[in-house]
């Protein structure tokens, strides 16, 4: 039990540090940027549960993210639901979508699965664009609720995001260390062989897609509150798909540390590039870094570190 | 309906490259739509600088695109295929490539819509009864049909074409026959990308193009390729016409914003129900 307690403790310390940081009140933009980076920690970690552990490349990250965001918009519109409800509801809706995608893996593997997820994202975007209640294609602005529990609303959101990131990483770490992670690794390397050895591949895949979907939805749920304006093109942005892929690839996909390293490095670099150069340039950098890493360092930063240590 | 048929011919033109690269070579080149858009911009530049007809410049650029495709394939081969890890990382590689091209284009040309006007774009044939065929759609359709025929003949009649068919079936046997599979694949990849040049030139004369138009075409191209049965050239044409007709029906009855969902919906259905496609082996 003590061994399981250590990561939990570390997680609590990180949350506490986040709260302290939120108290310090530096430039509010820093908190906003921090939110974005933390959001990417959640996204990258969630993507990696399916993509890194199970080897199913999901191009439909924006679909799950936007499901979370739009569930939140719907609940805010209809009943002004509080943030915790938004998080859970957004997560659950995206988890359902994940479960559906999981059943698709019965017929579709490899490339076909990836293209199907991309297709799913576009179909959902079209549906949202034609749904006037949540803003349609014009989008809609969302009012932040007055009186956050503490601090200003941005610092409050920042703390929430710290908490979400910690939860996501703990979940990923738990999966990786348990028999589930080993089963997923087995089916990543050879699905038929794993099935023959008695690994319950379908159940594992359904589990991975559902958990991954849930976390992506949770990452999307606070989105309406910190951008305060939601429109389909930003919620379904392809940036999320590329980043969700690039971050674990850069960090290293086989361990929970990889996506965190990738998200922090790439997320921070992007925030800096957006401020100092231009937002298009920052996407360009992501693309180049992604291609450079898959060509030159397929194991990511973790792989590089391991190779250096090995010598 | 007629518009849909014509649209189908044009869709065949843009999908042939995917059909060749993805269908026959089994390389998941999802960057293909970005190459098509690159072709559109090449045609745009040639037209605004020298007043070239888009189809002429599309043809002129095919050698350039061929070389480009060959280079991309070599990089892909050296870094993924030879190591035997093509599926996952190769996919990510092409996705990154798509993104780089899209962003480079928007850095170079901005995000304004671009459209080419030619002498024939505004003319049309009147069939009577209010039904007319716009040259804007007719010309790309004819070119698309010509490309389909050319590729069909190339694959069936020429040495390299047959070698490409062979490499998709049995690499080892081809190697035993004394041909180099990698060289053949390089050529096939180049031809596929070269087709994108012409497809792109057609695209910009049909509809306005922005750098992110490639996203709309990912679904269309792969839907057509999969529906047509992975690498079957005739199947590609049939599937392209089916998609063209259903898209134009959809946009007539439900509004144009739904037409995009058709291709992806079709793709999802085909993948879920019959992954081998209509003319699959």
Briefly say what this structure is.
The complex is a heterodimer of chains A (311) and B (281). Chain A is built from 15 helices and two strands.
Topology:
The complex is a heterodimer of chains A (311) and B (281).
Chain A: H1 2-24, H2 28-53, H3 61-79, H4 83-104, H5 110-129, E1 140-141, H6 153-177, H7 179-189, H8 191-196, H9 201-220, H10 223-227, E2 229-230, H11 232-235, H12 238-251, H13 257-276, H14 279-296, H15 300-310
Helix pairs in contact in A: 1-6, 2-6, 2-9, 2-12, 2-13, 3-4, 3-5, 3-9, 4-9, 6-7, 7-9, 12-13, 12-14, 12-15, 13-14
Chain B: H1 2-24, H2 32-50, H3 54-81, H4 86-109, E1 124-126, E2 132-134, H5 135-157, H6 159-169, H7 171-176, H8 181-206, H9 214-228, H10 233-254, H11 259-273
Antiparallel strand pairs in B: 1-2
Question: What does this entry look like structurally?
Answer:
The complex is a heterodimer of chains A (311) and B (281). Chain A has 311 residues and is mostly helical. Chain A has one domain. Helices cover 78% and strands 1% of the residues of chain A. Chain A has helices at 2-24, 28-53, 61-79, 83-104, 110-129, 153-177, 179-189, 191-196, 201-220, 223-227, 232-235, 238-251, 257-276, 279-296, 300-310; strands spanning 140-141, 229-230. In chain A, strands 1-2 form a two-stranded antiparallel sheet. In chain A, helix 2 (28-53) packs antiparallel against helix 9, helix 3 packs parallel to helix 5 and helix 6 (153-177) packs across helix 7 (179-189). Chain A is globular and about 55 Å long. In chain A, 50% of the residues are buried. Chain B is built from 11 helices and 2 strands. Chain B has helices spanning 2-24, 32-50, 54-81, 86-109, 135-157, 159-169, 171-176, 181-206, 214-228, 233-254, 259-273; strands at 124-126, 132-134. Helix content of chain B is 75%, strand content 2%. Chain B has one domain. The two termini of chain B are 30 Å apart. Chain B has a two-stranded antiparallel ribbon. The longest helix of chain B is centred in the first third of the chain and has 28 residues, at 54-81. Chain B has 281 residues and is mainly alpha-helical. In chain B, a hairpin with a 5-residue loop joins strand 1 (124-126) and strand 2. In chain B, helix 5 runs antiparallel to helix 8 (181-206). The chains are: A mainly alpha (311), B mainly alpha (281). The interface between A and B is large, with 41 and 39 residues.
């Amino acid at each position: 039990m003590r061994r399981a307690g250590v990561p939990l403790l570390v997680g609590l310390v990180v949350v506490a540090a986040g709260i302290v940081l939120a108290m310090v009140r530096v430039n509010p933009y820093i908190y906003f940027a921090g939110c974005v980076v933390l959001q990417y920690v959640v996204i990258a970690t969630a993507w990696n549960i399916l993509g890194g552990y199970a080897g199913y490349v999901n191009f439909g990250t924006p679909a799950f993210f936007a499901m979370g965001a739009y569930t939140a918009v719907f609940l805010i519109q209809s009943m002004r639901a509080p943030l915790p409800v938004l998080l859970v509801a957004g997560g659950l809706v995206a988890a359902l979508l994940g479960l559906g995608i999981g059943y698709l893996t019965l017929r579709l593997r490899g490339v076909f699965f990836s293209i199907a997820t991309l297709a799913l994202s576009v179909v959902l975007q079209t549906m949202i664009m034609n749904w006037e209640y949540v803003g349609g294609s014009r989008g809609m602005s969302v009012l932040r609720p007055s009186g956050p529990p503490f601090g200003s609303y941005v610092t409050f959101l920042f703390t929430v995001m710290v908490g979400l990131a910690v939860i996501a990483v703990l979940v990923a770490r738990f999966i990786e260390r348990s028999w589930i992670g080993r089963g997923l690794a087995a089916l990543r390397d050879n699905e038929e062989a794993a099935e023959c050895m008695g690994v319950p591949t379908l159940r594992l895949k359904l589990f991975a897609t559902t958990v991954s979907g849930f976390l992506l939805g949770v990452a999307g749920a606070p989105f309406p509150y910190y951008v305060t304006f939601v429109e389909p093109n930003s919620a379904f942005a392809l940036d999320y798909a590329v980043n969700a892929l690039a971050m674990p690839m850069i960090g290293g996909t086989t361990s929970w540390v990889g996506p965190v390293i990738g998200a922090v490095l790439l997320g921070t670099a992007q925030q800096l590039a957006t401020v100092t150069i231009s937002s298009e340039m920052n996407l360009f950098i992501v693309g180049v870094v992604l291609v450079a890493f898959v060509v030159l360092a397929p194991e990511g930063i973790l792989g590089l570190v391991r190779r250096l240590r090995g010598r | 309906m007629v518009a849909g048929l014509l649209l189908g011919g044009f869709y065949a033109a843009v999908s042939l490259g995917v059909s060749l690269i993805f269908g026959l070579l089994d390389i998941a080149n999802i960057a293909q739509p970005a190459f098509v858009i690159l072709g559109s911009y090449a045609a745009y530049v040639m037209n605004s600088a020298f007043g070239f007809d888009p189809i002429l410049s599309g043809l002129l650029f095919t050698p350039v695109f061929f070389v480009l495709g060959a280079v991309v394939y070599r990089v892909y081969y050296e870094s993924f295929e030879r190591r035997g890890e093509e599926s996952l990382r190769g996919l990510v590689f092409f996705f990154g490539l798509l993104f780089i091209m899209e962003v480079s284009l928007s850095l170079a040309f901005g995000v304004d819509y671009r459209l080419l006007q030619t002498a024939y774009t505004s003319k049309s044939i009147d069939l009577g009864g209010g039904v007319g065929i716009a040259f804007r759609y007719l010309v790309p359709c004819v070119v698309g049909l010509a490309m389909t025929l050319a590729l069909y003949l190339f694959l069936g009649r020429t040495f390299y074409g047959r070698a490409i068919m062979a490499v998709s079936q049995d690499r080892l046997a081809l190697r035993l026959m004394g041909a180099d599979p990698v060289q053949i694949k390089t050529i096939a990849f180049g031809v596929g990308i070269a087709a994108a040049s012409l497809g792109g030139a057609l695209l910009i004369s049909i509809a306005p193009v922005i750098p992110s138009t490639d996203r709309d075409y990912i679904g269309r191209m792969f839907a057509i390729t999969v529906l047509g049965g992975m690498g079957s050239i005739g199947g590609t044409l049939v599937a392209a016409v089916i998609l063209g007709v259903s898209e134009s029906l959809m946009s007539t009855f439900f509004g144009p914003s739904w037409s995009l969902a058709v291709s992806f919906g079709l793709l999802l259905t085909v993948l879920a129900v019959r992954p081998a496609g209509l003319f699959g082996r």
